Amino acid sequence: MSDENGTPDTSAGSRDTSTGAADALTGTPAGTSAGRPGSPAGAGPRPEPLRFFGTTWVDHDPGRQGYAARRVAAAVGSLAAVTVSCLVLRFAYEGIAIADLGGFVTLLIVVMFAVCTALAFRHTWEGFTKRPDPDRQASLRGLLAVGFVGSLLAYFFRTFTEAPGERLHRQEYDTARDRYARRSTRRTGNPSKKRRRG
To answer: Is the entire prediction scored with pTM above 0.70?
Structure first.
């Protein structure tokens, strides 16, 4: 699972061992399994759960624990985390000032945190619409850890438009469903054209 954007690293319709997702070719809708009463067998790939949102993003489930409530909770939680993080960084800055390391060193540290925060924000924001490259992600892990406030801010601002990562998951889920439908159509074909064995 990606640390920065809260989205799993697997594509829609893939096997998810944590939720018992079905096989990519014969998957079933979220919360159901093939052969269970009330669930059609081979109903297609299952939607991928989002961190903090589960599969409520698929139909924007209403209710006290539904999609809208979770978006509000995610916005409040990420903003609270940003506030606490800024307080911690302020204490760190005051500690540097007390140590009297010099104006140049202090400026370098402030610039480093600002640049890392901006890069983390951009990287996290882009991760909501496309899968990040694993090698690039691994090489940026230290930088993103330093600029963690940027990742939290990106998460906060994204909750105003959607669940963070929803657009990417919806595109992958729709693509997986279309592929499944085409495969099912090819397998079924036209029964009237099938040859009858004598």
So the answer is: no
